Write the structure tokens for this entry.
Amino acid sequence: MPDKRERGAGAEAEIHRRIAGEIEQLRGHSQLRTLEIPAGIDLSSNDYLGLAYDPRVREAARESLAHAGRVGATGSRLLSGNAREWEDLEADFAAFAGTEAALYFGSGYAANLGVLTSLLRPGDVVFSDARNHASLIDGMRLSGATKVICPHRDLDFLRNALHEHSGATGAKLIATESVFSMEGDVAPLEGMLRLAKQHGAALVVDEAHATGVGGPSGRGLAAEAGIEREVLAIVHTCGKALACAGAFVSGRQALKEFLINRARTFIFSTAMPPYFAGQIRAALELARAADRERTYLRDIARELRDELHAAGIECGSSSTHIVPVILGGNDAALHVANSLQRAGFAARAIRPPTVPPGTARIRISLTCRITREQMRRLAEELRGACALVRQGAETANA
């Protein structure tokens, strides 16, 4: 009979075999991801307003650090990590979001996990759009609530699903992104809220790709619809258009107090250092005033979609600054990504499981730093690369 050391070695060998086998399987299906440093015109950046390179944000961060009492948070917010800087910024962000209160989390992922795992419990029912981000999906899974996955933006399905669960004794919650990160289209928020009210459900909206870009003064699509005070929780991330890090959960004061006491991703995370609040504050002020940048972003996205549609290139139902070029197979997506990289564009192929099988794509994320000339050159390169892919498919099927 093997001793403990031999059994341990066998278990370790099994883990190594599993790692090697799964890497090889991913490679064989053209799904193996690698880390790369972008080179060329970046088409994957979420820096929609160009604030990551703005000298005013850099100077605000430098000045905030220079005047900081400490450079480390030293603990969680509930222990030694709270600071006046964070409390003041949370109050300012709530005013920006149009809600009673806001609570800062270290990342958008942590915010979505914290919200859903604290609000939901076994016996509850959560209704989720099929294209929701992984952080929403993982939050629902960890909550233990019953999940109902709704076809993308399908209000009829949602209505019927809510009706079917009308006898549920637990809470009902609808979770959605406002701008979908891989599709570039938007959720029917007003219709979702109307259904939520009719069926006694609450609505949670992740504004990650709309914060700073959509709505009045970049306040997001819930604010554009005028429903920001009727939504249970709105998650505004800082790591995209605001060029910082972290996220605010906005809603009623009672929600903030509840999350402080129940959201494990808040309770058990070391706080961000107080000086970082200065960078977020500066970015928020610049984003509020960025109407010209928002208009430009909408214009170049529309022009790019028009050019691609005219060439017969599939862009799905995108209506925002995120423009997917849907190619179908993994090899096709890799071929087009490589063609764009050779032409000086930093493009990455997005493949399953990030997107559904058969919908591999290039996700073009436009920012204010991309010029119209670069956008037109991008459209030209895409036309050529996609034409070669189509020719190859036709030859293979002949």
